[in-house]
Amino acid sequence: MDFLIYFAIILIVPLWASSRVKSTYKKYSKVATTANMTGAEVANRILQENGIYDVTVKPGKGFLTDHYNPSKKEIVLSPDNYHGMSVAGAAVAAHEVGHAIQDAESYAFLRFRHALVPVANIGSNLSMFLILAGLLLTSQALLLPGIIFFSAAVLFQFVTLPVEFNASSRAMDQMVSVGLIRNEEEPHAKKVLNAAALTYVAAALVSLLELLRFILMFMNMNRD
């Protein structure tokens, strides 16, 4: 029963978070901002207000594929957010600019996350192979390194949380101070940003539960 509950949690939590993001985004993508600015215009305006001129804003592809690429100094907005004039699009665009501002200010957690990327990538790719091999062969010598590598990936997930929450906080501050949204629009923008943050919280929670499960397996193997 505990096993079923565990798998229900790691499956349902991410699905719930993803569903929450999509439903919240869909709702507020139909609400136009009083500023009548596209997501691209919102992003460029905030960049200019913060004296950041080396970051470009470009359209991407797909649905909610918005991101900031620090190596290319690019903010990539999904088509609906790049061209649309919704509260949701403005909030998402401002959030990505929040990352650009973090980069410009050398925000500590962002720098730490960037430094963890190579380790986290190796951890994600190699850990499952070692863990699976360790469990199949009942080998602590394989399972322990797998857990250590997986821990790096989990650490990356948790370092991502303050980066994302801070970017959302900056987004709200910028939209208000620059006058891109009015008082009645602030709760709508916050709901979009909070829903998006849930996906990162869910990912961190699931990865932590997986790590704890692997550690318990290692401890049981050690007792046997």
Automatic annotation (TrEMBL):
Keyword list, A-Z: Membrane, Transmembrane, Transmembrane helix
UniProt-listed InterPro entries: Zn_peptidase_2
Bilayer-spanning residue ranges: 115-137, 142-163, 197-216
Source organism superkingdom: Bacteria
The protein here is known as Zinc metallopeptidase
